[in-house]
Amino acid sequence: MAFAAFSSQAAPSTDPVARRRSPVALFLLLPGILYLVLFFLTPLVSLLLTSFQAPREFGDIGQFDYAFRWQNYVEVVTTYWPHIARSFGYALAATFFALLISYPLAYFIGVKARRWPLLQSLMLVLVIAPFFISFLLRTLAWKQLFSDESFVVQSLKALSLLGPEAHVTGTAFSVIFGLTYNFIPFMTLPLYTTLERLDLRYLEAGNDLYASPFHVFRKVTIPLSMPGIVAGTLLTFIPAAGDYINASRDFLGGTGTQMMGNVIEANFLVLQNFPAAAALSIILMTVILVIVSIYVKRSGTEDLL
Amino acid sequence: MKLSLGKWLLPVYSGLALLFLMIPIGYTFVYSFNDSLKSNITWQGFTFDKWLNVCNVQNGAVCQAFGNSLFIGAVATVAATTLGTMIAIAIVRYRFKFRSQTSLLLFLPMATPEVVLGAGLAAQFLSVGVPKDMLTIILAHTMFCISFVVVTVKARVASLDPALEEAGRDLYGSAAQVFARITFPLLLPGILAAALLSFALSFDDFIITNFNSGAVSTFPKYIYISAARGIPAEANVLASMVFIIAIIVVVTVQVSGAAKARRLAKLS
Q: Which residue from A143, A147, B4, B134 puts its CA 20 to 30 A from B153's CA?
């Protein structure tokens, strides 16, 4: 599945099959590769070209000509730097909390529950269960649960943990909460795949050498589960940074919580300022690519898939 | 005392984490029975009505969107599964030039935020002058599903014992016969898993769809647009139905897989 893509342990590095050279390979590869070139690679180039477009002289809204207007980038950064900062800040916070919630859960499923395969598979089904219900409805459910009239908010107010005029929805808290919730399965699954293979004898060896449980965890368990941690954090961070559902005003966000995705959407679909939307997309993509390439450098391209 | 606390801490924590994951699902399910009129926000009383007359609301707009999503998901799944399976076989079985570039090209769509994929395709359709409709949605969905199919099927191809196909060839099976009678049936579980994943990804996709759908409605898009004025309980009904079907499918696959493993274990 998706998480296997980022988990270097997923692909066995030794290849038992002697690979042949044959024209069949070309026949098998060409249609799919051409498709991706046409509908993935060219659109990215298209996006790059659009990001440098200049408004047409005496043109209507939404009319642009190809140019090399690099000022587009300066303009979007000066206009939208809070959105850019929020995108990466919120995504980072959500990744951190998702890791905090997922690691013990994945550890329990992958290590402690090994003796009970049925419990293990039941828990895994529950981890992926949120995928089977609409992402938007899940997020809306939290919005209703956190609305001002809701039981949760009323109780918090009754206990004076929340001011009488305070809201939960529309705040940075609720956006980060939503992002964390929505991407927990993406964090838990790759963690589970590495922890499930964790050789417990290493932990025993640590105990035998009089290391404290905490020390064993820090020096043995964490390093051995690093592939899962890397895969999980990437799989959470990337979609979280680009997400605009959680931060949307109709969902968990407010005017002060808009992220890059929201302004890309608004510029593209509402304001028809295509170059601004494209420039923001390119910035987002570049940052993600830098992060991913650091990871690729560590593990090589063969392990990507 | 300290020992028993440590022993119970992790299971209790895990149970709570799973419970946390279930909260919005339970909420959506419960509110599908809400006797609400237009917006489904406050509890008005219990009714089976929404389940029995799902399509009656707003002249069937929910069901129209739901049907579109099913159709788009089906077409995109067939296209992506075909293209992706072919690539997966080629990657595991054959040597070819530009191998690492191919891996990178297959990996990148999964590492690209959806909003970038959506905006990129929309920019391309705009510059070429293609009107956005059902076709552009299907083209977009097929694109982002291919990589996931490759990853899923590739694992299956890699675990396939080449000796089985060799045996087929030794028995004078033609290349086509060997593929149809040996390779394909053995790959089928992987291909089906990939198809299910593709369908799930396509069905629940909102962001890429929103950029490339024009006036066409899909189920997630319908929810997004109605979010501002309140979502009818019928949407909850449809989502709950999908959820129940998906859970049944997954549990069936798990149980039959476990039974198969047990049979194989007995044989050896």
A: B134
Any B CB within 8 A of A264 CB: yes
Chain B interface includes A214 (CB < 8 A): no
pLDDT in the model for residue A12: 44
- Residues in A closer than 8 angstroms to B250, CB to CB, are 125, 128, 132
Nearest CB partner across the interface for A40, out of B11, B143, B151: B143
Report the percent of chain A where pLDDT is more than 90. Answer: 50
Cβ neighbours of residue A209 closer than 8 Å, sequence gap 6 or more: none
Which of residues 134 through 163 in chain B touch A, CB cutoff 8 A? 139-140, 142-143, 146-148, 150-152, 154-155, 158, 162
Phi-psi label, residue A170: left if phi above 0, alpha if psi -120 to 50, beta otherwise: left
Of A10, A136, A181, the CB nearest to B224: A136
- The alpha carbon of residue A54 and the mean position of all alpha carbons in its chain are separated, in whole angstroms, by 32
Sequence letter at residue B222: Y
Q: What pLDDT, in 10s, does the model give residues B205-260?
A: 999 999 999 899 999 999 998 888 778 888 899 999 999 999 998 888 878 877 77
Give the gap in angstroms from C-alpha A160 to the nearest C-alpha of chain B. 24
Report the b/e string of A28-59 with b at 16+ CB within 10 A. bbeebbebbeebbebbbebbbbbbbbebeeee
Q: What is the DSSP string of B59-70?
A: GGHHHHHHHHHH
**Chain A residues near residue B127 by CB distance under 8 angstroms:** 46, 49-50
Query: What is the DSSP code string of A199-236?
Result: -HHHHHHHHHTT--HHHHIIIIIHHHTHHHHHHHHHHH
Nearest to B57, CA basis, from B251, B258, B230: B230
Task: For residue A55, report the phi and psi dihedrals to the nearest 5 degrees.
Answer: -65, 140
Q: Contact at 8 Å (CB) between B226 and B238?
A: no
Q: Are B218 and B65 in contact (CB under 8 A)?
A: yes
Least confident of A66-70, A119-123, B113-117, B197-201: A66-70
Q: Over chain A, what is the mean pLDDT?
A: 87
Please determine, looking at this structure, whether the domain spanning B59-229 carries the CATH number 3.30.360.10. Answer: no
Query: What SS3 class is residue A54?
Result: strand
Q: Where are the alpha helices (DSSP H) in B131-229?
A: 134-158, 162-170, 175-178, 184-204, 207-212, 219-226
H helix runs in A111-199, sequence order: 117-128, 135-145, 151-158, 172-196
Which of A2, A112, A136 has the CB atom closest to B220's CB atom? A136
Residue A286 in tokens: 């570049």
Residues of B in contact with A132 (CB under 8 A): 200, 242-243, 246-247, 250
State both tokens at A82: 């809070």
Q: How far apart are CA A251 and CA B224, in angstroms?
A: 9
pTM recorded for the entire structure: 0.88
Pick from A225, A148, A140: which is nearest to A187 by CA? A225
